[in-house]
Amino acid sequence: MAVSRRPLSHQHAKLQTIVHRDFLDFGPLAPVLSRADVVLCALGVSWYQAKSESEYRKITHDYVLASARTAAVANPAVRFCFVSGHGASKD
């Protein structure tokens, strides 16, 4: 299962995409997250892509914590892994 802002171009019979708009509120996804064993979180933006420091913090910090908190409450045994692009080049 993939949670995304928009439909994914990649399609597969075993992949279900959930289009989710409010990344500060993952509450509506709690029933789905309660069944997850692992959450791989790749939310974030590079410093160069952000329009401001506050936008960078909101996307890279606040969105990630919102997803982690909802997943942890929905399923206390869930493993949450943040996938970071730290050190990636903008080129």
User: What is the tally of beta strands?
Assistant: 4
Numbering strands along the chain, what is their spatial order in the largest sheet?
1-2
Which regions contain 5 or more consecutive residues with pLDDT less than 50?
none
Fraction in beta strands = 15-25%
What value does the Rg take, in angstroms? 14 Å
Explain this structure to me?
The chain is α/β, with parallel strands linked by helices. It has one domain (22-91). It is built from 2 helices and 4 strands, in the order ββαβαβ. The chain has helices at 30-33, 53-74; strands at residues 2-4, 17-19, 38-41, 79-82. It has a two-stranded parallel ribbon. Strands 3-4 form a two-stranded parallel ribbon. Helix 2 links the parallel strand 3 (38-41) and strand 4. The longest helix is centred in the C-terminal third of the chain and has 22 residues, at 53-74.
Defining key terms:
two-stranded parallel ribbon; 4 strands; 15% strand; alpha/beta; 91 residues
Brief digest:
With 91 residues, this protein is α/β, with parallel strands linked by helices. It has helices at 30-33, 53-74, and strands spanning 2-4, 17-19, 38-41, 79-82. 8% of the residues are buried.
Which helices and strands occur, and which strands form pairs?
Layout (H helix, E strand, L loop, with lengths): L1 E3 L12 E3 L10 H4 L4 E4 L11 H22 L4 E4 L9
Parallel strand pairs: 1-2, 3-4
